[in-house]
Amino acid sequence: MTHLSWTSIVRLGLVQLCLGAIVVLTTSTLNRLMVVELALPAVLPGLLVGLHYAIQITRPNWGYRSDTGGNRTRFIILGMAALASGGFLAAAGFVVMAVSFWAGLALSVLAYVLIGLGVGASGTSLLALLASATHPRRRAAAATITWLMMIFGIAVTATVVGKALDPYSPSLLLKLVALVCGSAVVLTILAVRGIERRAGVIEAPERQPLPFRRGIAEIWAEPRARHFTLFIFLSMVAYFMQELILEPYAGLVFGFTPGQSTQLSGVQNGGVFVGMLTVGIAATGLRIGSLRTWVMAGCGGSALALLLLTTAGQIGMGVALVRPATMALGFFNGMFAVAAIAAMMALAGEGREEREGTRMGLWGASQAIAAGAGGLLGAASVDVARRWIDAPSAFGLVFAVEATLFLVSMVIAEHVIDARRKADFGTAIPGE
User: Fold this and answer.
1) Per-residue H/E/C for 41-95
2) pTM (2 decimals)?
3) Is-contact 10 145, C-beta < 8 A?
4) Which of 108-112, 114-118, 205-209, 410-414 has the lowest mean pLDDT?
């Protein structure tokens, strides 16, 4: 087998960029439009986004298919096509909802099912290809590069679409979403073409593969894999609690327009990008800190940024704090995420051999379930709190709970992640 070159890794990163570009429209822009423009309860888009995360429980199966052979490129492309179709149908469902709520809701449910299937098939197959065809010293670096590209796609799409969406109209929304989704499919096909064949990993193994349930059971029996799965779940609940409420917070509390609140999402994801890049440069170039140190710093900083967002809603000039606090939240989220990704890629190659895809699928499923639970918990909590207290206090209460979860995750990280493992994205530690 030929290991992936840096050029091939960057090309695969374009697929992650496309994934992020479509998903940000469905989890941020459409969510905001439902809550503010249609005055729907935040729990409704929370349930829809939670549905697409729940469908990603299939991620271990996609990873298992990658481990037992077959054409991963096919799953990547078909998954992206399903995601793009779901993205456009989600926008169409929102437009229909304004005229006929139940018809629009039915179309939206179908859309978010397709989104979940698309992300699961394409994303997991892509990570499995990276984990199995990338040289061990490049695995974590490859994951970091591709994740940065995904964040870049999210930030650019949120910013550009946010500016283009003002003044808002349903027809303009559909045109912009169709352009993003169509471009993502074309770019994905061009990006993955020929990479898997040249890497020599498309042939199925000669031996009879293990049954799926037995393969999962063997991975779960590995203590490090099991404990890391639990850590991923708890930390990602904290990470995603604000996903569905940040833009409505900006719209309801500070009067942001749809375009302005979408741009705020771009500010946040721009901060994530800078945070990831900062850790990558500091750890790779300067060899500063361990994975555990960076994860704990990211969790602690995220908690402080959330408390700043809470304060912004309680003071008269709070609007001036929203963007800096959102940028800080993204920055520390990025620090946490890139260190967790590095640990994930390093651990994916440990334990039983030829289980990279299954491990990535297991952790991906844990992340997806946590993301859905976190997003839904945040949205539902805001709805309940607003029945008793004003909007700034309701949102602030949820942000404070999220900050607490980050602090709990910081404590857990101290015991779960090996302090000896340097965050240098690929260099092995002697004796491990």
Assistant:
1) CCHHHHHHHHHHHHHHHHHHHHHHHHHCCCCHHHHHHHHHHHHHHHHHHHHHHHH
2) 0.72
3) yes
4) 205-209
Res 113: pLDDT = 94
Distance CA 280, CA 342 (A): 10
Q: What are the residue ranges spanned by the domains of the chain?
A: 6-201+211-416
Cα torsion through 253, 322, 327, 385, rounded to 10 = -40
Measure the CA–CA gap between 30 and 244, rounded to whole angstroms: 10
Token pair of 73 as six digits: 């490129």
d(CA 283, CA 300): 19
Q: What is the CATH number of domain 6-201+211-416?
A: 1.20.1250.20
CB-CB contact of 252 with 148 (8 Å)? no
Number of Cβ within a 10 Å radius of residue 432? 9
Label each residue of 166-233 as H, E or C: CCCCHHHHHHHHHHHHHHHHHHHHHHHCCHHHHHCCCCCCCCCCCCHHHHHHHHHCCHHHHHHHHHHH
**Which backbone phi and psi does 422 adopt, to 5 degrees?**
-75, 145
Range list of β-strands (E), 224-355: none
pLDDT, tens digit, for every residue of 277-298? 888 777 655 667 777 888 899 9
